[in-house]
Amino acid sequence: MRRTAAVDGEAEVLAEVRRIFADELGRKETVGMDDELARDLQLDSVQLLTLVVGLENRFRIALAEEDAGEIRTVADLVRLVCRRRDGGAS
């Protein structure tokens, strides 16, 4: 049951990433879990900040600047948001 909840949580966060990507960034590309934020999606620092702030607001979490080092792909970001939302510090 725990794994299903985790998958559901990741799906919810991914859906929000896609919404922000389309609605707030005006981007039309399909966003997948394996996409790299810089290389594949070509997000600049302002776009990345928009994405992060949108996720923080939607899920009522705080992502630290130190978290940036572990974020390369959409999956990395989704999992970090899920951990923060579920009360995990790392």
Q: Report the uncertain regions.
A: none
Approximate shape: globular
Give me the count of strands.
0
Strand content: under 5%
State the end-to-end CA separation: 22 Å
In helices, the fraction of residues equals: 55-70%
Give the biggest sheet.
none
Coarse structural class: mainly alpha
**Radius of gyration from the alpha-carbon trace, in angstroms:** 12 Å
Count up the helices: 3
Overall pLDDT: 91
Query: What sequence of helices (H) and strands (E) makes up the elements?
Result: HHH
What does this structure look like?
The chain is mainly α and 90 residues long. Helices cover 56% and strands 0% of the residues. Helix 1 crosses helix 3. The protein is globular. 16% of the residues are buried. The model has no long low-confidence stretch (mean pLDDT 91).
